[in-house]
TrEMBL record:
Matches recorded under InterPro entries: Mos1_HTH, Transposase-MT_Hybrid
Domain Mos1 transposase HTH positions: 8-52
Name recorded for this polypeptide: GVQW3 protein
Superkingdom assignment: Eukaryota
Length: 119
């Protein structure tokens, strides 16, 4: 994480110097070698700084998908029919398939079935 933050500062510096995205990425590769971020990441950050972004840190993310309430909602749907697809559950509960998959695999399957003990 610290390495990518350093590289974002370097990209911001290159943008201020008027370097284009290709020149910036080449400089990053030279400076950071194997720890260099990808060309696409470099390009995205270059574009963001060129468009006026000042902050180098990531935007905050809200991790509300795996709340106890959502785990219980998924569990209740699965109790009604364990053969339901991840997509169907996500659509039914108005959640992302990524969130439902995470709940099913990490909270329900990895728990050893404790959510389904009464069956």
């Amino acid at each position: 994480m610290e390495r990518s933050l350093e590289q974002r500062y370097a990209i911001k510096f290159c943008v201020r110097l008027g370097k284009n995205a290709t020149e910036t990425f080449q400089m990053l590769q030279e400076a950071f070698k194997d720890d260099c971020i990808s060309r696409s990441q470099s390009g995205r950050w270059h574009k963001a700084f060129k468009e006026g972004r000042e902050e180098v840190a990531d935007e905050p993310r809200f991790g509300t998908a795996r709340t106890d309430e959502n785990v219980n909602r998924v569990c209740e749907v699965l109790r009604s029919d364990r053969r339901l697809s991840i997509q169907y559950i996500a659509d039914t509960l108005n959640m992302s398939t990524f969130a439902v998959h995470g709940i099913v695999t990490e909270n329900l399957i990895d728990s050893g079935g404790e959510y389904f003990e009464e069956f």
